[in-house]
Protein 1
Amino acid sequence: MSTSKNPETLGLHAGYRADPATGAVAVPIHQTTSYQFRDTAHAAALFSLQELGPIYTRIGGPTADVLEQRIAAMEGGAAALAVSSGQAASAFAVQNIAHAGDNIVTSTDLYGGTWNLFANTFKDMGIEVRFVDPADPQAFARATDDKTRAYYAETLPNPKLRVFPIKEVADIGRPLGIPLIMDNTAAPVICRPFEHGAAVVVYSTTKYLGGHGTSIGGMIVDGGNFDWEAHKARQPYLNQPDPSYHGAVWTEAVKPIGPVAYIIKARTTLLRDLGSAMSPFNAFLTIQGVETVALRMERHCENAVKVADFLSKHPAVESVIFPGLMTGEAKARADRYLGGKYGALMGMVLKGGADAGKAFIDKLQMFYHVANIGDARSLAIHPATTTHSQLSAEEQEATGVSPGYVRLSIGIEHIDDIIADLSQALS
Ligand code: PLP
């Protein structure tokens, strides 16, 4: 099974066969804070990373470990780290290699929470974030200087839903020693960013990976494909002695384990110090989602294509924002990076503006009116009066939100029921 490369199989089998103590086939929930050491030598070996194993649930445990192995395998990465939310994953992914005085360059097309983290909290911490339009990949090169530690972007960012030029930007960064961190939350399984040159992948597992709207969670995956050692000046925190861990030089310390300096450092320093651990119960629930995510994504994407077709012909709809309906470079990128699918997020602009948007939402019967995306259920929201309501009208337009814009996250219900609900709400 370990030889499989298929996400359908890996989601069910990677990282676990059966519980060695009981034979349990479902991954047990190890609801404990601490793990007893066999003796003092064992304890010392664990703390000095001579041996890897559970110590204390804030820095890892067997339930999260299975989830980490499973997602790392599905992604084609070397190792992963589960954290308490997608926000924690984005924050750690950057903080692991950028400190006060450094900068990163990011795409402007970002989830609002990530935008806030970058524009405000990171700024307060002294990490400068430079925002560039991803329509021109060379904008990343122009914004780069000696203190640039990472590039950051989302594969399929809403509301604009322009697929990010992963390879184009990864290729700019790699020779300079700058890793591309991709938030692949909206496109698990259908996009594998490491195959296009990304070095780190982050997820809000809250969305499609968990899939059932039960658990907030995040994941950072180390591609194991980035030569940190070749860029000692660019990446000092992985190449210089770390005073917070007996002067360990991470690229050297992990050599017996594998190409996992980045992710081991995130666990042993950031997770240890900032404590955003995923609980064993949330890891268990997220595993249930991961077991079927490949199958669900197929149905999500299949339904979304049908909904886009229906909406694009509807007289009350001015326009539909969906990668499959785009033209030119945007469509070419969608085709290149989403493996023939287009995800299941969609925007539609209603002819009647904000009033029509609100009326549509209020009439929905099956769709849930929530701020979330990526649930198995179909979801909808009117951004101008909710998620983007703190922005001025001009700022809303700049982020791709017009007054009549409605965001849809198409679920896996029967397509006839999805269309029926949309149809009655549009009438
Ligand atoms: N990244 C993306 C693309 C998201 O949509 C979200 C949440 O909506 C996040 C990150 C943050 O994830 P969480 O809500 O799990 O903290």
Note: Residues 206 and 215 are 6 Å apart (CA to CA).
Protein 2
Amino acid sequence: MTGKVREMISEVQVNARIKELADQISEDYKGKGVHLICILKGSVFFTCELAKRLSIPVTIDFMSVSSYGSETVSSGRVRILKDLDESIQGKDILIIEDIIDSGNTLSYLKDLLGTRAPKSLEICTLLDKPDRRVTNVDVKYVGFVIPDEFVVGYGLDYDQYYRNLPYVGVVEQ
Ligand code: IMP
Ligand code: MG
């Protein structure tokens, strides 16, 4: 499980873009702070790097979800493996995702969390693959729009490997 990885977005580019997103989010939430919801496991790296660069009060919670079916194609059904520890009622919530592909996971999550009476609910994703969208979902912050390729690194995995790469790349067969 250690094929060669072709770099798509360099570590320097990713970190620079995360700083831009953090500045924008700090501005948008100025005077109120934000409650980040990190979607395990893929979003862990992005959440940490983003949170470190925010200049507003930040709290963080974690949720783990899984779509049924194969690893590389989303089936559209989502199940919760780990729910949040804390209530989101009355809080300004920002869901942090690694990538939006079909949109099924985030659309399900946004609907679910929306029923828990947050004050506001937005989405921030590091990567967006719009070519493969099946379910429309409103995303406020997008790091990079990428072509329809299966990417790894910066938290994203292929069969659980490659999450630790400090850049985003494509595994070469
Ligand atoms: P969606 O429900 O199809 O939008 O799928 C989102 C989830 O699928 C992400 O949170 C990832 O875990 C996974 N995923 C989608 N595309 C990729 C990819 O290119 N590389 C790694 N994981 C991916
Ligand atoms: Mg995954």
Note: The first strand starts at residue 5 and ends at 9.
